[in-house]
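Handover notes (outgoing to incoming on-call)

Open items:
1. TrmH family RNA methyltransferase: sequence verified, structure written out, both below. Nothing else pending on this one.
2. Nothing else urgent.
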Amino acid sequence: MRGYFGIGVEGISKPMNLGNLLRSAHAFDASFFFTIAPTFQARDVALSDTSDAAQHLPLYNFDSVEELTLPRGCQLVGIEFTEESQELPSFRHPVAAAYVLGPEKGSLSPELSARCEAVVKIPTKFCVNVGVAGAIVMYDRIVSLGRFARRPVNPRARPDPMAEHVRGGQVIRNPSKSPEQTAGGGRSAGE
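TrmH family RNA methyltransferase C-alpha cells:
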C-alpha cells in the first residue's frame, strides 16, 4: 500500500480506551500515534495495550492544538459524528493522512476542527467508543487503499487471486508524443 498514516486523539481521559486505540494502530501498521492534551496516567494505558505499541511506533504528545505538528504534506482528517461530516464509505483517504478523534464524552475542539482538511463520520445510529471508531477508520483505509482481490458476487465463492504485478518497460501516457520526444530526444526547431 502506498503512503502512510498516523492516528491520534484529543483530550482523551480513559487509559483503557487509549490503550485499545494504540493497540489497533499498531495492528493496522500506523506510522505514528499522537495525543493532544491527554489526561491519563501512562502506566494505566499498558493494561489494554497488550502489544506494547509505544515500543513499536512513534508516539507524540502535544499539550495543545497549536503545538500539533505533522509531516509536510500530511492531511489532518477529523473523525466526528455531526450532520455536516462526510460519511466514511464515501470518503477518499489521502495518501498521507493523520486521523484525529475527539474525547470520550465530547467533540473535537473548534480549533482542531478548523485545522482539519476533512471531517468524516462513521454511519452509525449513535457514537461508538473512541477505540472502536479508530479501528473502523483504519480498517476502511486499508480496504480502500490496499491491493486486495475483488469480492465475489456469490458469498460462498472464493475471490479470484490477484494478478501478479508486471514490471516492464516505459509506459507512455501521452500517445501524441513519441518516446524520443518524451525523453528529450525529439528534433530541434533548426533541423
